[in-house]
Amino acid sequence: MKPVAATGVDFLSEHLRDPLTVALLVAIPALFVVVSAAVLSEFASALGGSVAGRSASALGAGWAAAFLAGALGFFQVSSSRDADRRLALAGFGAAKTATARIGAALVLGLLVSVVAFFTLWLRAGIAHPAHAFVAILIFALIYIGIGALVGSLVSGALEGSLAVAFIFLIDTFSGPGMSAGGGLAELMPTRTAADVLIAAGAGNNSPAGDWIVVGFTTLAALAVAAAAFWLAARPRS
User: What is the spatial distance between Cα 175 and Cα 2, in angstroms, rounded to a whole number?
Assistant: First the structure.
């Protein structure tokens, strides 16, 4: 496990050695949370939804973490495919390479979730901080899976980035509190996580069934991410 951990640290350093990347990881979640409440409330009103106030701020924190985590998941697959295959061919193996990659992705997802959560806490306060933080982190983990899946299917940086952004926009504006519900909203992966986050923002508890659903959804997303990282690193004959 030590070589895998050391490689994961190296992968993480690839992203964090650039000061601009670090600045974006901190600034984007913070700015998103600060400006999201009014914007999300206005869009929700236009689309027939009801999210507003602290619930809108909480939802904005979740979407901030999701957007960055999805982009990071995509680029971890698309931009590192050749390097990961060489590493696997050198004797490290595709499974270990994928494990190191997903470990780095989880740390990055945790980082953006922490920034989004503390900005939310300072900006709007939160009645259920533990619930809110877990829900924000779940948004990030789900979008790591989405970003990695897109990265395994789309090789171009521009095309893949637009694909992740397109999924993000559909998910955002068809989700709970943002629209009248039904149709496409029922199929989106963050639907129950959004319910939990909206409830936490409003100071309400979520039923155990919602937590079970988000738990299984998160595990499925991480399984997809692991498969995408493994496929990207697997040497071709």
Answer: 41
Rounded to two decimals, the pTM is 0.85
Alpha-carbon distances, residue 146 vs 58, 89, 93, 171, 195 (angstroms) = 21, 26, 24, 12, 19
Contact 115, 30 (CB under 8 A): yes
Query: For the chain, which residues make up each domain, given as ranges?
Result: 2-233
Any idea of the CA torsion for 180, 186, 192, 193, to the nearest 10 degrees? -90
How far, in Å, CA of 66 to CA of 217, rounded?
14
DSSP of 4-43 = HHHHHHHHHHHHHSSHHHHHHHHHHHHHHHHHHHHHHHHH
Which pLDDT tens digits describe the chain residue by residue (237 residues)? Answer: 677 777 767 767 776 777 777 777 777 777 777 776 556 555 544 444 545 556 677 777 888 889 889 988 898 888 777 777 888 788 788 888 888 888 888 988 998 899 888 888 877 677 788 888 998 999 999 999 999 999 888 878 888 888 998 888 888 777 665 555 555 566 778 888 888 887 877 777 888 888 898 999 999 999 999 898 888 888 765
Distance CA 29, CA 116 (A): 5
Position 199, amino acid = A
3-state helix, strand, coil in the chain (%, to 5): 85, 0, 15
Q: Strands (DSSP E) along the chain, which ranges?
A: none
116 with 64: CB under 8 angstroms? yes
